[in-house]
Amino acid sequence: MSPAIAGSIVLIAMLVLLAAGTPIxxxxxxVAIAALVLTDGxxxxxxxxxxxxxxxxxxxxxxxxxxxxxxAAVASxxxxxxxxxxxxxxxxxxxxxxVMSNIGACALFAALSGSSPATCAAIGKMGIPEMTRRGYPDxxxxxxxxxxxxxxxxxxxxxxxxxxxxxxxTSIGRLFLAGLVPGLMLTALFMAWALFDCWRxxxxxxxxxxxxxxxxxxxxxxxxxxxxLIVAAILFxxxxxxxxxxxxxGTGALICILLVAxxxxxxxxxxxxxxxxxxxxxxxxxxxxxxxAELFAFALSSLFITQTVAGAIAGLEVNRWVLLIIINxxxxxxxxxxxxxxxxxxxxxxxxxxxxxxxxxxxxxAVILTINMEIGLITPPVGLNLxxxxxxxxxxxxRDILYGSMPFVGMMVVGMILLALFPQIALFLxxxxxxxxx
Length: 438
Description:
With 438 residues, this protein is mostly helical. It is 76% helix and 0% strand. The protein contains 21 helices and no strands. The chain has helices at residues 3-19, 24-40, 48-54, 63-75, 79-91, 97-113, 116-133, 138-149, 159-168, 172-200, 214-218, 221-239, 245-263, 269-302, 305-314, 320-335, 340-358, 362-377, 384-392, 398-421, 424-434. The longest helix has 34 residues, at 269-302. The radius of gyration is 22 Å and the shape is globular.
């Protein structure tokens, strides 16, 4: 059987299993084992467990559940409410300030939790009802938070960046730095669109009769600033070479648990059980996908599918920017159906040699890839953030949520174009702090 036919069969089998609702890890594992058995016989099963666990046998993987624990602690606390209210009290007089408050709160909460769905849920529960009460269109209210929630996988610390760093053997600290400025740039682009859209639709200031004193504006900051300082401290120890990602993640998780217990009095068993339950659930899901993706990649390599696809793409006699556009289209389509972690693990072995031969920086590409994954979070048919928003605001139709999200997809495309024209947006900070990549 030729690699092209084998690849087509594997792809069709994957799509059928995913369409049937099979969990991604099980779909990857089943297709991989079936492909290996059909080509090498029943004896191929002997090496399945070894290959599966080889994907997890990396000490850097310890940081994944630790960062998830850190995010779960923050997401389970009222920190999102305090963050949202603090920003609203500063921006409530600005035309469109409510939308800008929500986007800013999403960006900051995303940095704390590292989870797009958690960000949408935490900020959306408060922001959407308040925006609709003040006369903002449902589509803008829901779309701004759905898009703002995507920032969780780009602004550090990001689990997606950790998985990319492990799978491509690149520096996680440098990846975090590479995502910082683009994350802030996307936040600014989102806010710019929100401001323009409010001006275009004639949305004036919010509650003009309400006035906040300086004391009221500062009231929530003592409860929020400690969490923001943790993020800053984690980035500092990583970039300063003080600690490894695993050490920084473990320390950050412990401090976050202590802070939610002290600040929000969440020391009882119930809240703590919820935090650790959510952590275990998400961490196990990601680890299963990582192990299954390693097995899947091994099966593709054994069938010479990876080598054939890489050779076909590399053999295209096109400009390297046309090649990048082709890769981006592939990633966008994959993002419509699969979560970021699965896409990174499945595509990295194929794409990295091609990108290297084309002269693209792997840290710069990590940002491009992550923005692609962000688009997938707010586009159907999967569009996880769309369903999260619909779940917390069922009175807003999926159509309106999608309609409100589309302009922000346009801002993400603008962000990728700016990164292509000016790669130093992503590379300046890591090169400045950590020196040029070897």
